[in-house]
Amino acid sequence: MKPTPFELHVDQAEIDDLRRRLAQTRWPDEAPLTPWSTGTSLAYLRELVRWWQADYDWRRTEASLNALPQFRMRIDDIDLHYIHVPGRGPADGATPLPLLLSHGWPGSVLEFVKLIPLLTDPAAHGGDARDAFTVVAPSLPGYTLSFRPGQARKGVPEIAAILHTLMTERLGYPSYGAQGGDWGSFITARLAATEPQSLVGIHLNMMPLRRDATLFGSDNPEEARYRTELETFLKEETGYQWIQGTRPQTLAFALADSPVGLAAWLVEKFQRWTDCDGDPENALTREEMIGDIAFYWFTNCIGASFWPYFARMHGPWPVPDEKRIAVPTGYAAFPKEILRPPRVSAERVFDIRRWTEMPRGGHFAALEQPEALAAEIRAFFAPLR
Description:
With 385 residues, the chain is an alpha/beta fold. 42% of the residues lie in helices and 15% in strands.
């Protein structure tokens, strides 16, 4: 099956309908505690929604995506959307390494708009042409442009298999590298565990270790620190995982009908998971945040995007860890990532070849710190080419 070129164009009627819905919002009151301590701040969201309705231009977001070559291809009953940008390598004709980029939730391929040029044409951005990649960045099945109503839901194992088919059978890359954060880190690690013959290396900006505090000892100070951090995270920060993982359909009714409800649900993660000192706009622009939210809105994919959580809670841990994964692994440890396990723990599961403590950044690394992330990816894969 050949790929079909694709460009995104949202009908103006849908944009006008969204503006009407924003204007008709019925707001709750603010809980009687510090703003953000019980969820998204009312004052912050009011101002963000005002800006969304009056000043945001979806066509700018749309144009940024359409500036990259996009395609669709049917794989396993999914009309898979993906970006495919050939690398600009050195003059001696060395072939750029194929690199699969996988996003997560509540992200999308929009996260990679700033990152991709740094990887495909490093020489144009102060780097070395020998470090160029040919980048393939799919919209995950069930997310945005890889979603259609009624399609089969896919968890991490099925998504990884689809992306491997895309890279090897459909695009003709028998050997490739992979990189990811959030669910993308699980997909990337799953590929390394199940398809090691095809992976030259994997790079992660979130470490997908099993989240069981009993697996981390208290004798090692770093593991003791992480165990405490993990226990706090499981108690205070996983409410969204439980509802998305147990009653995704119920939540989908609310978020598919209310753009402000959708914004509140996603903006909290932009505030909690970035290196922002409490104000998400210290890490991300309004256009980046609203662009991602609008992308979910216009594609009406929010219910399907929850499915990896449901699959994880009702099945085995998605990264097989019965034996150590032998594919060379690099990790960029951003200081405000939601969980930061120590290297000693990660090395039980992965063959860590490069581990870098990053000075700034959080969960949305490709948006927050694209230059730093690109430099780490290039440095890790350089000896593996």
